[in-house]
Amino acid sequence: MRTLRGDAADWGVAEALLARIAYTVAGANWQRSGGKGPRPKPIEIPGVGGNQRKSRQERGADAAQRLRNLGLIPAAPGQRPGPIPDARQPSAVEFQQRVDDEFLAREMRRATDT
């Protein structure tokens, strides 16, 4: 197993969750102390990837891409545009009504066929 997962072989889900909890508690304690002292460092969890933060430019590019995918801003030249902004998606109530109608129609067909 170690050859496949490397250092992550020693870590299960429980260990990873406990590491996240420990980091969260340390951060909460640091915050309640008014931010005195050094900010707690994240616990490195093998196999999860680095805890590096994205740069401001990368975060901005990600946000812009999400807005393009939603059709809220136009696509950049040479990129595929997102959904058509005028295309209206059904609300949850409309969707549930459609599902209920289809179910009732199916049940009515089944009742009349027998």
Topology:
Layout: H1 2-5, H2 13-32, H3 56-69, H4 92-113
Characterize the structure shown.
With about 110 residues, the protein is an all-alpha fold. Helices cover about 55% and strands about 0% of the residues. The chain contains four helices and no strands. The protein has helices at about 1-5, 15-30, 55-70, 90-114. The model has no long low-confidence stretch (mean pLDDT about 75).
Which residue ranges are poorly predicted, with pLDDT under 50 across at least 5 consecutive positions?
none
Mean pLDDT: 77
Secondary-structure element pattern, one letter each: HHHH
Gross morphology: extended
Count of extended strands: 0
Q: How big is the Rg? A: 25 Å
Tell me the span between the first and last alpha carbons: 57 Å
Treating each run of at least 4 consecutive H or I residues as one helix, how many helices?
4
Helix/strand-derived category reads mainly alpha
Q: Major beta sheet, specifics?
A: none
Descriptive keywords:
114 residues; mainly alpha; 2 domains; 4 helices; 53% helix; 0% strand
Q: Can you describe this structure in just a few lines?
A:
This protein has 114 residues and is mostly helical. It has four helices and no strands. The longest helix is centred in the last third of the chain and has 22 residues.
